[in-house]
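Batch job 17 of 40 flagged for manual review because the log was empty.
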Amino acid sequence: MATIDEELAQLEKDIRQLKIEYDMYFGGGRKRPPSEIEWRIELIVKRYAERGGELKFNQRFRFSNLSQTYAKYKDVFRKRLVHHEEGKVQRHFGAAAKAIEAQRAKAQPAPADVGATASQPANAASTASAIAAESKAFRMTCAEPEKEPEKVEQLYQAFVSAKQQAGEETAKLSRSSFNEFVRKKTKDLQTAKNCRDVEYVVEVVAGQVKLKALVKS
């Protein structure tokens, strides 16, 4: 039986594969939408949405990012399916129309070829816009990091998970150095801004993971 981490890894792989196969379908390389993969993804998403309490913090964070990515892809695919199906209907509305289309194709072969080639960049642009959408930010507020190790640990796990999801290097990250950074940054802001609470935010900006420290009023 697969572990939670293995199933989340499979979910991530299936989401990437779903995107590839939908692009093949819209580009004419598949006859049918990839319903089997989509059904498998739906099962896993539904299962862990109902069993969120069984996940560790970093697993919940990873699942949240994956489910948000899938939801965005699904919305893009749904809209493209509508246009795709409408296009089929318009091309098959009668013998007379088919004859007209055939005459136009003979008279203007070059534009027809250009249109077929241009569909691929258009599809890629739609998918890219979904990938560029930013994930929901993780926020944590603390005043004495050395006395709130659980909060700092959650922040560290969120930061590492976000970097992994974005495909960034994490091998050089150290929990001890991260703890020291949060401790020092908190003290520096408290002294400079005469405040007590400091809010840390993990978010994705332009495809890169950012860790911000903000003063809480």
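Reviewer: the log was empty due to a logging misconfiguration, but the result itself is present. The chain has seven helices and three strands. Unflagging and moving on to job 18.
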